[in-house]
Amino acid sequence: MTKLPILLSIPHGGNKIPPELTHYNNLSFDDIYKDSDPHTIDIYGLQDFKGPLIINDIARCYIDVNRSMDDLPPLNHDGVLKTINLFGKPIYKDNWFPSASLRKLLLEKYYIPFHKQIEKSLDAEIEIALDCHSMLPNPPTFGGIKHNSTTTKRPSICLSNLGDLYGKPVNNSFTSCSVDLLNLLSSGFQKAFEHEDITIKFNSPFKGGYITKHHSMNSEIPWVQIEINRELYMSDNFLDTSSGKTKETRIKDLRTKFKTAIVHLFK
User: Fold this and answer.
1) Is the peptide bond before 98 cis (omega within 30 degrees of 0)?
2) Nearest one of 80, 84, 86 to 103, comparing CA atoms
3) CB of 231 within 8 A of CB of 209?
4) Structure confidence by residue, pLDDT tens digits, 131-180
5) Helix crossing, 112-121 with 210-217: angle to 10°?
6) Is the pTM of this model over 0.85?
7) What is the per-residue pLDDT across 189-246, written as a single tens digit (0 to 9) for each?
8) How many other C-beta atoms can be found within 10 angstroms of the C-beta atom of residue 92?
9) 111: Cβ–Cβ under 8 A, 6 or more apart, which residues?
10) How far apart are CA 142 and CA 127, in angstroms?
11) Strands 223-229 vs 157-160: parallel, antiparallel or unpaired
């Protein structure tokens, strides 16, 4: 196995419901699935590299590790603990919401260990960290969520470093990696998708979330947030007509393309 000095974070690939919340849950499996980043564990989870692979298996609609711990309702219904999902459906029955003591327990049990694992993995051997996501082809239309989105038509791939459309700092603010690194990763994806017509944008529609910002500011390791458009694997031409699910061959193909793109960083 090749050991590349890279950390992979997959915060929204899980679909599990914390047992503490099962009794109050109002969401179906389909609701949870659509609110997650489907197939990202299969696409990004390159265990063959033997580098740190940090996966959160709890569904983001219950505990979102890509938010600050104090990002809560009512100021933000799409915070670390949520009241509604991306499509406006109440997460819990009868307007229930975890008490302060239960919120503390949930964060200590599921949120803090994820970030501690990242912190422990950012050692001298790690040169780059990637926070790996998927995005809907278009922003959800529900108006109650504060969508961190600047466009309606989304690109095939978004690479984010907290900067502007060119990867440069906004008003001399902090960026999580250099423009050169974004360009190098972009060229890697262009090579990987050389036989497909794709678009790649920097910091649009997403500039980078809490994981990218927090951990890049607290270490010397450069971070990039990656968003892959679900059109690349969940549109009709990639679905099995009998099951309605994404073809396994396409997931394997995207996994190979992702590997090609990140190997390009070290050539």
Assistant:
1) no
2) 80
3) no
4) 999 999 998 875 444 445 445 789 999 999 999 999 999 987 899 999 99
5) 40
6) yes
7) 999 999 999 999 999 999 999 999 999 999 999 999 999 999 999 999 999 888 888 9
8) 18
9) 63, 65, 69, 80
10) 39
11) antiparallel
* Domains parsed from the chain with CATH numbers: 6-266 (3.40.630.40)
Q: 70: closest CA among 266, 243, 229, 210?
A: 210
Q: What is the average pLDDT across 57-69? A: 97
CB atoms within 10 A of CB 174: 12
Q: How far apart are CA 235 and CA 187, in angstroms?
A: 25
d(C-alpha 258, C-alpha 265), whole Å: 11
CB neighbour burial string for 7-44, b if at least 16 within 10 angstroms, e if fewer: bbbbbbbbbebbeebeeebebeeebbebbbbbbbbbbb
